[in-house]
Amino acid sequence: MRGEKTEEYVVGKIRVLVTYKKVKNLNLRIRVRDGKAIASVPRRYPPEKVHYWLESQREWLEHQTLKLAQMRLRQSETVAAAGIEKISENPCQQKQQREQLHAKAMRMIEIWAPKMGELRPSSLTIRIMRTRWGSCNHATRSINLNLELLARPEWALEYVIVHELAHLYHRGHGPQFWEMVEDVLPDWKERRRALRKIPPI
């Protein structure tokens, strides 16, 4: 953005991307999706003070970086144990996988939607989603599904579809929302717990 500048600092063996921007406080975090250390500092904060501040955070940086690496390792082991393969990074193969999941999801929607009422999604889109398995725009009745559901057990896809279909009727996660989910999927809690053990990777 206008007036911002970005510089790279090295703390031990960790590279930190620092952006000088319109903020009041010093902020430091590890970005989960790629493991990069990101910081934001006030525009006129002296560079030598930035370096001193980052050095003071070295122990935290090393701990958080190690923690994220261990979390990713656990995810990989869980995925491997479940016999799950990663979604292809090849554009042509990924297009085929999107079409495959779309067809599979549409068949499931035709099974589950009538059990929940009269509404149907206006559109179904398959996407790469970093933190969620699915989403629903209540106003437009459009549903998005994470492509990685193709590499998950069928019970997981069923749970996510029922969850998003319920959002066609209820915007939030209030009591009526969960009552609708439980009416058609009594074991939804067990499915949700199991799915949380193999999050998107």
Write the CATH fold name of the largest domain: Zincin-like
Q: Separation of termini?
A: 30 Å
Largest sheet: 4 strands, mixed
Biggest sheet, strands in spatial order? Answer: 1-2-4-3
CATH class of the largest domain: Alpha Beta
Radius of gyration: 22 Å
* Gross geometry: elongated
Helix content percent band: 40-55%
* Approximate strand percentage: 15-25%
Question: Which spans have pLDDT < 50 for at least 5 consecutive residues?
Answer: none
CATH-defined architecture of the largest domain: 2-Layer Sandwich
Mean pLDDT: 86
Structural class: alpha/beta
**N-to-C SSE string, H for helix and E for strand:** EEEEHHHEEEHHH
Classified in CATH, the superfamily of the largest domain is Metalloproteases ("zincins"), catalytic domain
Q: How many extended strands?
A: 7
Number of separate structural domains: 2
Question: Which oligomeric form is depicted?
Answer: single chain
Q: Helical element count?
A: 6
Secondary structure layout plus pairing:
Elements: E1 5-11, E2 14-21, E3 27-30, E4 37-42, H1 47-56, H2 58-81, H3 91-116, E5 123-127, E6 134-137, E7 142-146, H4 154-166, H5 175-184, H6 188-196
Parallel strand pairs: 2-4, 5-7
Antiparallel strand pairs: 1-2, 3-4, 6-7
Helix pairs in contact: 3-4
